[in-house]
Amino acid sequence: MAICSAFCAATAHAAASQSATDPYSAATAKLDAKTDGLLPVYLDAKASRVLIALKPTGRAGELGEFLYQVYLRSGMGSTPIGLDRSQPADTQLIAFHRAGNMVYAELENTAFRADGGTAAEKSAVHDSFPASTIWSTPAMAEGPGGAVLIDLSSFLVRDAFGVGDVLVKRKQGPFKLDSKLSYPDVTGAQIFAENLEFEAHETFTSDEPAASELSDILPSPHAATVIVHHSLIKLPDPGYVPRRADPRVGSLYGTVITDYSAPLTAPVVYRLANRFRLEKTDPSAARSEVKKPIVFYVDSAAPEPVRTALMEGARWWSDAFEAAGFLHAFRVDVLPPGASPLDARYNVINWVHRQTRGWSYGSSIIDPRTGEIVKGAVLLGSLRIRQDRMIFESLVGAAKTGSGAQDDPIRISLARIRQLAVHETGHALGLEHNFAGSTYDDRASVMDYPGPRIKIVNGELDFTDAYKVGVGSWDRFTIHWLYGQFPPESTASDLEALVRDGYAHGLRFVSDPDARPPGSSQPYGAMWDDGTDAVVELAHVLEVRGIALRRFGPANLPDGAPLSDLRRVIVPLYLFHRYEVDAVSKWVGGDNFAYAVKGDGIPIPAVVAAGEQRRALTALLHTLDPEVLDLQDALLSQLSAGQFSTPDKQTGIEVFGAPTSAPFDLGDRDAATRTPPFDLQLAASAAVDNTLSDLLEVSRLNRVAQQGAFDSRQLSLPELLTQTLNSVFFPDKEGGSPHAAALRSGVEGRLLARLAAVTEEPTLSVAAAVDVRAALADLSIRLAAVKKGDKEEVATAHFYAERISGDKLKDFAKTYLTAYPVAPTGPPIGGEYEDDWFSDAAR
Ligand SMILES: [Zn+2]
C-alpha cells in the first residue's frame, strides 16, 4: 500500500493514544468538532472546509456505506427549467473505499443482484455490472479506531445534482460549474445520530447565456447560484420486509430489480413496491397501535389559510391506515421551527415558488436495496391555488371571492388544494396515479386528477360538492395492500385475496401510460374528468361553460384589475370542456382492459360497444359546432382591451395568440399586449384542435379501422370520417349564431389540415390511410360541385376542394396546421411532469 511517509509515521504511533502532535489531532485541533453524530465531523469556518472521519467496516478497504441523497435547497424558480427548491435527485447507495493514501466514493449498483444466492453467485453478479466511482481525495490522517480523516469539501462542491446538464438540455446556454465561485457552507452543516446534512453554494457561469427563461430570472444572466444539499444517511436497520409490486395495485413504479438467484421457474426481473416501514405493536391484532407512526410535516413557509388546508387534506390518509388496521399511524404537523425541510428525519410537504405556475409532485427517499421509504418529499407549486381562484372567478364572478359561501372562489380553491396535498402525499407514501378513480364509486381515489363537480341548481352553478372530502375506496384498498401486516406464512395468499376481493367489488385501475397519451384507448383512463358516463359529463360541462360564458365580462375580474386580464381569464373557461373531450375520445376505438394476472378472474379486454362509440363520436362532433365556439359581440369588444401595465409572464403565455405553448419556449411577456383585437378564430381553433387532435390521433384511427374491419357492426373508419366531414361541411342545420359561417369555415380548415397531416404520418396503417385518402377525395369532388348558395361559401368550398386534391394535400397540412398557434400553455407545460387543472401540464 503506497502511503506517504509522514502518514505512515503517524499511523505507526497512533494505536495506543493520539498525541497532540499526531497528524489527526493536528489536523482537527483548531476546528469545531462535532463528534456525537453519525460520523465525527470537523468544521473549519476560517478555511471553508468540512472534514469527516470515516470508520473502517472491517472489510478490506471499506470505510462505510450510506444512503446518499442530493437535493437543491434553493431553486432556479422556473417551471420549464424544472430545478426547484427542495427538489430531490435519485437516492443512491454510496460506499467509501480506501486504496493507498486515497479515499474513493463509489455509487453502488443495486439493480442487479443475487439476493438468494451463494457468496460466489453474489460476487459473480457484482462483478458483471459496473459501479460508478464519482470522487476521490487523499486520506489526511488516521485517527482513533482506524478512522480516516478526509476533507469532504470538494465532494460537496461538485455538480452533484446535474444542474449544468439540465440548463444545457433546457436550452438556457452552456452553463458550467465555476469552482472559484462555489464553496461549502460550513455553517449549514447539521450533524445527527442517523444523518449528516451538508450544503454548498454552487455557481454556474456561462459566457453565452441564451436569451431565455433563466436570463429573465437571474440578476446577472452570466451566473446562476444555487445551494446544493447532501444527506449522508445511516443504512436502515435490518428487519424491513420488502414487498413485491403487483400490477393490479397502484403502488409506485417502484424499484426494478434483476435477481440472478431467482429459481429457473421464477422471473428474474421484478419490481419492489416502495413503502414506509410500518409495524404494529401487536402484529397478531387486527387493529393495533404502531411502533413508529408516519409523520408528515408541512413547510412552515406555506402561509395561512393554505397551510391549514394542506394539513387537513394530507391528514385524510390516516383514515386509510385506520381501515388497514393501523391506529394513530399517520399524522401531519407543521415543520418545527429551525428544522430543515431536507433533514432526513422529516417527511416534508414543501411549498415552492416559481416564476410561473407549474406542477407539484410527491416523491420519496428510497433505500434502493429494499424499496423502503426513509423520507417523504412533497413539493407543491405555490401559484396553482391562484390559478384555481382565477378559474372559479371566471365561473362565478369576482364579487363572490371571500364571501365564504359555497361558490366563494377562495373556498373552492382551498377545497382543491386539500386534494393536492392528499394526492402528492399519496405519491410520497408509495402510491401511483389511478386515473379511473373518477369513474366509479363517487370519486374512488385521490390519486386521480380531480375535475370540479359543479352542479346546476335553478340555472345557477353550485359548488357544494365541487371536491370530495376524504380518501376513496381505491385509496383504502391500496394502503391496505401496500402496508397491511399479515402473518409471514400467509402474506402472499392474503395479499392475493385482497386484490381479488377488491376487483370483485368493482375496483378499476388505469395509470399514466394508458391515460396521458391522446391516442390511448382505455375508456376509463382520463384526467380532470368526472363521473361514470363521459358523454353525459361532456354535455354537462358544456352547459356549465355556457352559463358562465353568457355572463362573462368585467365582473369576472377583481376590482382594479386591468380589463385586458379578461383575455387571460377567459382561456380556461372557453376551454372548460377540454378534459371531458379527452375522456370521451377514449371511447372511440376504445378497449377496456385491466392490468390482470393469469387466473385472477378479472374479465378479459373488451372493445367499447359500437353504440357507445357512436354516442361518443356524436358528442365530440358537437364541440365543433359554431354555436359552441361563438362569443357575443359585446364580449368580443371587451376582450379587445389593450394592456399597458405590470408585465406578468404568466399572462404572456396564457392568452390565445401567445406565440407558442411549446414546452421550453414560453413566448414573451409582450404577447398579451400585441394581440388586440381579440381573435375569436384563434380561440375557436384552440378548442377545435383539442377535439380533433384526440379524435384523429393516428393510433385511434388505426384501431377504429381495425375494429370496423373485424366487426361489421362496429363503428368503422369510413363511417367516422363521413360523419365527421358531413357534420362540419354539410350540417343538418344552418346559421344558429351570428358568426356561424365564419367560424364554420375555420373549423373546416382545421379539420382538413389535420386529416392532411395524418396522411403523412408514417405510423398510419395502410387500411386507415386508404380510408382517409378516399374520404378526402370524395369530399373534394363534393366541394367542387357546390354551385348554389352564399358567394363566400361557394368560394370557400372551391378553395378547399382544390387544396385537398392530389399532391397539394401535403402543403395544405404544412400551411394550415403548423402556422396557427396552439392552445395556450397548459397541457403539457413540460410534457413529463404533473398536470394542473388549467392546462395539461406535467409528471
Ligand atoms: Zn400525481
Return the structural class: alpha+beta
Q: What is the molecular shape?
A: globular
Low-confidence stretches: 1-17, 659-674, 827-843
Helix content: 25-40%
Bound molecules: zinc ion
Oligomer: single chain
Radius of gyration (Å): 30 Å
Q: What's the total number of strands?
A: 30
Mean pLDDT: 90
What is the count of DSSP helices, taking H or I runs of 4+ residues?
27
Portion in strands:
15-25%
Question: How would you sum up the major sheet?
Answer: 10 strands, antiparallel
What does this structure look like?
- The protein is α+β, with helices and mostly antiparallel strands and 843 residues long.
- The chain has 27 helices and 30 strands.
- The longest helix has 20 residues, at 409-428.
- Residues 423, 427, 433, 834 line the site of zinc ion.
Index terms:
843 residues, ten-stranded antiparallel beta sheet, disordered N terminus, 34% helix, 17% strand, disordered C terminus, binds zinc ion, alpha+beta, 27 helices, globular, six-stranded mixed beta sheet
Compact overview of the structure:
The protein has 843 residues and is an alpha+beta fold.
Helices and strands in order, then pairings?
Blueprint: H1 5-12, H2 23-28, E1 32-34, E2 41-44, E3 49-54, E4 62-72, E5 87-88, E6 92-99, E7 102-107, E8 112-113, H3 119-128, E9 132-138, E10 141-142, E11 148-151, H4 153-156, H5 163-169, E12 176-177, E13 183-184, E14 190-191, E15 195-205, H6 213-217, E16 223-233, E17 255-259, E18 269-272, E19 275-276, E20 288-289, E21 294-298, H7 306-315, H8 317-323, E22 326-327, E23 330-334, E24 347-352, E25 361-366, E26 372-381, H9 384-396, H10 409-428, E27 455-457, E28 460-462, H11 473-483, H12 491-504, H13 534-550, H14 566-574, H15 578-585, E29 591-592, E30 606-607, H16 610-622, H17 626-629, H18 633-638, H19 649-653, H20 671-674, H21 680-695, H22 698-710, H23 717-729, H24 740-758, H25 766-784, H26 791-803, H27 808-818
The protein binds zinc ion.
